[in-house]
Design a protein that fits this description.
By secondary structure, the chain is mostly beta strands. Helices cover 3% and strands 57% of the residues. It is built from 1 helix and 10 strands; from the N terminus they run αββββββββββ. The chain has one helix spanning 17-20; strands spanning 26-33, 37-41, 45-56, 60-72, 78-85, 88-96, 104-112, 117-127, 135-138, 145-154. The strands form 2 sheets. Strands 1, 2, 4, 7, 9 and 10 form a 6-stranded antiparallel β-sheet that branches. Strand 5 (78-85) and strand 6 (88-96) form a beta hairpin. The longest helix is centred in the N-terminal third of the chain and has 4 residues, at 17-20. It is elongated. It starts with 16 loop residues before the first helix and ends with a strand. The model has no long low-confidence stretch (mean pLDDT 91).
């Protein structure tokens, strides 16, 4: 870890800009949907509206988290959600679905650094290789789906 924690604090110490830049900057991008409905998915498709754009700073770690809800048409169908930057898959989140027509959730995260500048990340979904049927990705007021980007500190 790039941060050298100071565990000896003295009354009257001054917090410097350099020290402040060693802290995480927190949430830098977030997209949520309560209305996503994308059905009959078999091969990979970008999930409608599930992208986020933020301004990356070089030499910093970013935690990208995703939460998705899928309903298979066939029992035990495995589906996947990809966290992507353009065509590059950063992380694959798998879910081995339950009974047919019963929704299951999948979530996960990846920690990456990015080139400085505008950065767009997105979610795509598909039925996993070897599974049959199809998947419907959806969301609701009490089951929002999302992609979240957090700056977690210097690399």
């Amino acid at each position: 870890m790039a941060i050298s924690p100071n565990d000896t604090f003295t009354s009257g110490q001054i917090l410097t800009a350099s020290e402040c830049n060693s802290f995480p900057f927190g949430v830098v991008g977030y997209t949520e949907s309560t209305t996503l409905l994308q059905g009959t998915v078999t091969t990979e498709v970008d999930l409608t509206g599930m992208s986020v754009t933020f301004t990356a700073i070089a030499n910093r770690y970013y935690k990208v988290s995703a939460f998705m809800y899928g309903v298979p048409t066939v029992a035990n169908a495995v589906y996947k959600v990809n966290i992507k930057q353009g065509a590059t898959v950063l992380q694959i989140l798998f879910n081995s679905g339950g009974p047919a027509t019963t929704g299951t959730t999948t979530s996960g995260s990846v920690i990456k650094t990015f080139t400085a500048g505008s950065t767009t990340l997105k979610l795509s979904g598909a039925l996993a290789a070897g599974s049959t049927g199809s998947i419907t990705f959806n969301a609701g007021a009490t089951l929002p789906v999302f992609i979240l980007v957090e700056d977690i500190g210097p690399a």
